[in-house]
Amino acid sequence: MRRLLLALPFVLLPLAVAHAHDEHEHTHDHEHGSLGAHEHGVARLNAALDDTSLELELESPAMNLVGFEHAVGSDDDKARVAATRARLEQPLNLFNLPAAAGCSVVKQELESPLFGDKPAADEDHDEHSEIHAHYQFTCTTADALKHLDLSGLFKAFPATQKIQVQLVAPSGQHGVEATPSAAILKF
Q: pTM for the full model?
């Protein structure tokens, strides 16, 4: 499974080069949310299925999930962060995996400056906080895992308008874009 996720950067390299080319041609416009990798309303999801293991990595601007990106200060901020974390700690509700696949969470990690984690040195967390969630599942009947339903994620976090997904599965690898009206992805 680790080999699949480690291979993702190489799979995504052509997309990154194309994106960098687009970024070079267009100027950043903070008022309109065109921030390259950090775009409000847009999240990224890497999904890797290998044998009986499913690994999901979600990256999203905090704005999509919490509703703000500033440092937590008020009691209302703390409550919103706690509610977001509680939702993220229930990945089976967010990803709606088919019951027939018998998937269970074996590991999960949540990371964000809003959760009290130390910010990375290369990120500007004053204005652009991110939330990273990493989940590992074991599925007793992985053959039944034919699709990934993101409707629970869109419902839990309605400010998320689209998710750029990279899928790596035995059938191959491909990138797709999920939206609330097209939330079911085939492996």
A: 0.76
